[in-house]
User: Fold these one by one.
Assistant:
Number 1:
Amino acid sequence: MPVLIRIARTLRRTLLQAVPTILGIVVLNFFLLQLAPGDAADVLAGEAGSATQESVAALRARFGLDSPVLEQLATYLGNLAQFSLGFSPRYGMPVADLIAQRLPGTLTLMAVALLIAILLGIVLGSLMANFAGRIPDRVLSVFSLLFYSIPSFWIGLMLIVLFSIKLGWLPSGGAGTIGSQLKGLPALFDTARYMVLPATSLALFYVAIYARLTRAAMLEVKSQDFVRTAYAKGLTPFGVTARHILRNALIPITTMAGMHIGGMLGGAVVVETVYSWPGLGRLAFEAVMGRDFTVLLGILLLSSLLVIIANAAVDLVHAWLDPRIGAR
Amino acid sequence: MTSLLLQVENLTIGFPRAEPVRNLSFEVRAGETLAIVGESGSGKSLTALALMQLLPRAAAVISGRIIFDDRDLLGLDAREMRHLRGRDIAMIFQEPMTSLNPVMSIGRQIGEVLKAHEKLSGRAARERAIELLKLVRIPAAEKRVDDYPHQLSGGMRQRVMIAMAVACRPKLLIADEPTTALDVTIQAQVLDLLDTLRRELQMAVVLITHDLGVVAQWADRVVVMYAGRKVEQALPGELFNDPLHPYTRGLLSASPRLKHDFHYLEGPLTEISGSIVSAAGEVGCPFRPRCCQARASCGHQVPPLIAQTPDRLVACPFTSSLKAVPDAAHLSL
Ligand SMILES: Nc1ncnc2c1ncn2[C@@H]1O[C@H](COP(=O)(O)OP(=O)(O)OP(=O)(O)O)[C@@H](O)[C@H]1O
Ligand SMILES: [Mg+2]
């Protein structure tokens, strides 16, 4: 039971902090975006080619872009209070619908990438810690340094060159075979095939981080007294590592993973563009280019919500991993 | 005479640059408490860890034999040694604050050693953990079993360590300064508990300490170590009434609690001048630089252990001349 109480307490604290955070993010971003030159009407007019002063002004009036900034903010917040994210001039549809279309793509991509990063990172980091200072550790260290320093778009391109063009094993872009009528397991398998490369490119950077982090954390935990106690009980080296060392080393790793979710959204913009993956990242990119600030604000709002949820999840995992946390 | 449980013969433990334990021999009889005393750095913990085969990575047993229950522990492979650890030989460590895993409930930590050596379900292990907590006199054991180490006081944690150590009824329990980190009243409780359990479970205890008061009260036999060697071995009574080695004499006169009708306000406590470090890398008697009785011949070789009776050994050839002037040693120290 104390576990549940601990978790409930953590959850309540998170919720209380979330509301002002989100409000602050929205207002700040709103003013920030106002600083960018041009608006949606300009871009639309530019793309149409044959726009006149009058038609642009009419566009502005239709979407409320001509009213004073503070009034626009008030309208936006008013919409938010009614759980509406507003309307996109560019796509001609409610922002909420637009995001709902793209969100699942990005979420699966991020979830898969994060899962790969954490699992692979912990396995590699454990190996490195186990062989600290010896050949396997050295080799893996070099690789982790490489993946840490190579930008993800380049890794993405190279993976495409190798696996799609040279070997022809995996598709180079998209989210599923177009026009396929697959259902159930084969459909899942098809999606997975399209997911491998983008998820890997997004993950490799984080694999490197988690591997190094796991290595450091495990080496530190290893030298602690309770590990000697565990060996004195007659446990196997694997038992000691899994139940005593890893469990304690996981605490700093989950903290970092939580902090990385925001960064991963940023990485998704690049990766989704490289692999033409229909996700939020690409939508954000298009919204910036089209000066479609309602869409952008919606995405930013959602991202911050995502980060807050992720942090809450990390807090929960922490409360579960570390009994000392709930005591506060 | 009771049977021998453990026999350590000529044990030498080395790091790449030093040999902190040299040529150490002692034995432990079934059911007895053997105290090993010596100041900080004399190699007590390393000896204990060698018995468990848990020496730090840089250290190794260079020579010697450790015969436990007719088997040489140094000849066992990792698996065989694992089966002994926690089941036949258990150990309690010096630091109760850090020797328990902070993120695992104490019930699980106790259950773990049971599961490692006996086929037990999770529920049965928990029941046994509660029994063990009761055995080490932890109140409200049913509730405490789910507590985490940070919720317990130092004394309670050491009790949990003891519960863990005796869980599989070991034949030998090594307690490395089990009470150094605890305050005096708790110390006595914990040591009493250890002694009661020793009798109830019929185990032998190797009690490592630098507190001679502890020796006087709880030990059946005493080994005095200095700079990694045994310098004297005796029954506690003999040791306190008639210490032979100059180092032992120094130790005794430096212990306030042992002098009858002596209060520290009435006179100065003597100290042994110099430090153990100064004994490193010397030929001859390791205690020579600090010994007031040192003579030229002490520098020639390490004095061999001389048996006065089978149970009374001393590594100093000049003890009879020392005895002539009973208090000479600590008067001039
Ligand atoms: N990792 C190590 N590397 C080198 N020397 C070490 C190491 N660990 C211990 N030693 C040396 O071994 C000697 C004996 O250490 P040990 O821990 O056995 O002493 P001890 O008698 O238990 O002392 P204490 O009463 O402080 O616990 C010390 O002089 C110490 O300098
Ligand atoms: Mg010690």
Number 2:
Amino acid sequence: MFRPGHNRHDLRELADEDLMELVREGDARAFEVVFDRHGGVAFSLAYRMCGSSARAEDVVQDAFVSLWRSGARYDRARGSVRSWILSTVHNRAIDSFRRESARHGQDVHDERLAELVPAATTTEAEVQQRDDAHRVRTALAQLPPDQRRVIELAYFGGFTHTQISEMLELPAGTVKGRMRLGLAKLRGSLSAGGLTP
Amino acid sequence: MSERHGPVHDCGGDAAAYVLGALEPAEAEAFRGHLLECVVCRDEVETLAGVVQALPMSAPQHAAPRRLRRRLLRAIREQPPSRAATAGRPASRRRLRPATLLGAAAGAAAAVAAAVLIALGGGPGATLSRVIRASVSGVSGSVQLRISAEHGELVARHLSAPPPGHVYEVWLKPAGSGPRPASVLFTVNRDGFADVSIPASLRGITAVMVTPEPAGGSPVPTHAPVIVASVA
Ligand SMILES: [Zn+2]
């Protein structure tokens, strides 16, 4: 829809949910703003999962094209557009793992790492995001390594608990138990920091 | 996690593995069945899903590569949503305010409403092939799945809004396996209307389902479906 009143600057003032209304109407500039807001965290998640910049870019491209095409409607609840994007990226990365017969673990990184640019922290939102990231990383780092490892292998690696117990040579049931303890502990430290409901 | 008093209910700790997507497909299927009956596990899934949503932030944060931005913006400019999401229909159809147009038909009997929908989408060159009435349970309203070629669109009327803090999430169920996310979240407008395009192909899909999920959606269903449209 033609909206002569919106220039790029105005668009940057809009909340995600308002931008998504415009995206639904086919406003490519609104979409660009959504990407500039969430493309970095989306790419970072994909890169962490895929370990290759080229694959991460494909995953993010897929996820955002589907956002563009689906015209999904959003609740005006906080952060939902971002969560939707991240969960789409996560699903797409796992799909791409499953399509590939021989895959590397999530610790493999390619040579392009040197080309990657750290996320900017110039706006207030970016600073907030950096602080949130720091808090999540700290909370994860404080978990007992056994618990952190299974959570990371499952979430970032896309492995099932059975695969993880084979990899780590643990009895069945132990992996699930560690996931449970680890997530519960993480929940404790994140809610103390106001990061989860 | 808050201390939980009262009877200890140990469900084997599947909730954590489930929200991490780490259950085997058959286990996940069984656990989804269990969730329908077990409020303790439902509660745990909802709580832990919030933790899992924070995990992406723990990855080292990079800027999106310029190359990716260029490629993506080129792709979307070549593929406007009015064509992509509603393939086979006149492009102008999507520009109409569906809420206004279809709102007029909302009070009509389902069969009449379906006819109106077909008329709206059925201009020259349109390929609307089927309109399926979905079964709706636990919420009020009516929902239709419209299929053009391999693509579907859910049209809801007078549908209850999802609970506060929740959205509706669409799932595609292939024959012989559990539902997978269609990557579509939606809610309804004030009149209970929604018009939702499903980007993925419906080839090999036996049912399109909708569950209420926490805002932001869930990688796996955490509630019983409230809308089921059988495609087969
Ligand atoms: Zn239970």
